[in-house]
Design goal:
42% of the residues lie in helices and 18% in strands. The protein is of the alpha/beta class and 330 residues long. The chain has 2 domains: 2-117 and 294-311, Nucleotidyltransferase, domain 5 (2-Layer Sandwich), CATH 3.30.420; 126-289, Nucleotidyltransferase, domain 5 (2-Layer Sandwich). Helix 4 (111-117) packs across helix 11, helix 5 packs parallel to helix 7 (208-223) and helix 8 crosses helix 9 (271-279). The radius of gyration is 20 Å and the shape is globular. The structure holds 5'-O-[(R)-(carboxyoxy)(hydroxy)phosphoryl]adenosine. Residues 10, 135-137, 162-163, 165-166, 177-180, 183, 265-267, 269-270, 296-297 line the site of 5'-O-[(R)-(carboxyoxy)(hydroxy)phosphoryl]adenosine.
Length: 330
């Protein structure tokens, strides 16, 4: 089964062709990071316009790389929620146009399901599982009783973890996106700053207090004319974040009697998070984390999610499918 995937929910335009939910024949990703860096974050209107410029080119490149003709495609899978509405609409319109012209069935994919199923490219995903989704817009713990069944058991009350990484990076003058830079810097520092550990109820998260503590600390030190040890602060911040994420995930896995853990989303690229999951794995959980190229937004994960959604005999979408900025994973 050949599935064409289309993803444009934020600032990456991506088209992929995947065979049988596993073999990635092409996964073309054009990132707009360089464009948004100068604004210190993604500017939605700029992102939509750039998707429009790039989407045709990305389609062509994906077919060329895969050496596949449009008529060979069995299904078209597209991210329809959540994300920046203008960005989503560009990919959705392109996918629907392709489906209409070539008379192909359409599969609607939730962006976070895509992140979860990025793991199926390189691992065999087993259920029941606890999925930790950590990205720029979301921090959630999801119980998956079986394939393509999602029950949100915990989420952030305020900032997503990627968002707090980006804001910490900004106050330290490290640019955008902040996650990879803070992660790299943290590896060279020591945990010497004392930061609050925001443990909130159950499987929920809260990162805004921690982020504000870092911002206040930087401002106070600057006012006193003290030097900020950026690497140490990055290491101290990363230590708190990864401790909370790993502890809560293990707690959920234990409570829900799950031997399988799935880590998904942009922040799953974090080296400290991976290290901590492996080091603290005293119950020998089967932990799946995607390789870096599948952690951040890409269309291969959307095509793979569609493959598993189809196994579930879920309804197909049609050309009336709309995009939604907000939608819970279901
Ligand atoms: O999943 P993603 O590509 O886009 C969303 O759907 O949000 O995640 C992007 C987020 C950004 O906030 C970025 O700073 C963060 O993932 N990120 C990281 C790392 N790599 C990307 N955060 C921490 N450590 C990293 N290595």
């Amino acid at each position: 089964m050949l599935i064409l995937g289309v993803e444009s929910s934020c600032d990456e335009t991506s088209v992929a062709i995947v065979r049988d939910g596993k073999e990635v024949l092409s996964n073309v990703v054009i990132s707009q990071i360089d464009i948004h860096t100068k604004f210190g974050g993604v500017v939605p209107e700029v992102a939509s316009r750039n998707h429009v410029y790039q989407v045709g080119l990305v389609f062509e490149e994906a077919f060329k790389k895969a050496n596949i003709l449009p008529k060979d495609i069995d299904y078209v899978a597209v991210t329809y929620a959540p994300g920046l509405i203008g960005s989503l609409l560009v990919g959705l319109t392109a996918a629907k146009t392709f489906a209409l012209i070539h008379n192909k069935p359409l599969v609607a994919i939730h962006h976070l399901a895509g992140h979860i199923y990025a793991n199926a490219i390189e691992h065999v995903m087993k259920f029941p599982a606890i999925a930790l989704i950590v990205s720029g817009g979301n921090t959630e713990l999801v119980y998956m009783k079986d394939n393509y069944e999602f029950e949100i058991i915990g989420e952030t009350y305020d900032d997503a973890v990627g968002e707090s990484y980006d804001k910490v990076a900004r106050v330290l003058g490290l640019g955008y996106p902040g996650g990879p830079v803070v992660d790299k810097l943290a590896r060279t520092g020591n945990i010497t700053y004392k930061l609050p550990k925001p443990y909130v109820d159950g499987y929920n998260f809260s990162f805004s207090g921690l982020k504000s503590a870092v911002i206040n600390l930087v401002h106070n030190e600057e006012q006193r004319g003290n030097e900020i040890r950026k690497a140490d602060l990055a290491a101290s911040f990363q230590d708190v974040v990864t401790e909370i994420l790993v502890n809560k995930t293990f707690m959920a896995a234990k409570d829900y009697n799950c031997q399988n853990i799935i880590v998904a989303g942009g922040v799953s690229a974090n080296s400290g998070l991976k290290e901590r999951f492996n080091k603290n794995n005293s119950f020998n959980y089967n932990i799946n984390i995607p390789s870096i190229k599948y952690c951040t937004d890409n269309a291969a994960m959307i095509a793979v999610a569609a493959y598993y959604k189809l196994q579930k005999k879920e309804d197909l979408a049609d050309l009336t499918l709309n995009a939604y900025a907000n939608m819970e994973l279901h």
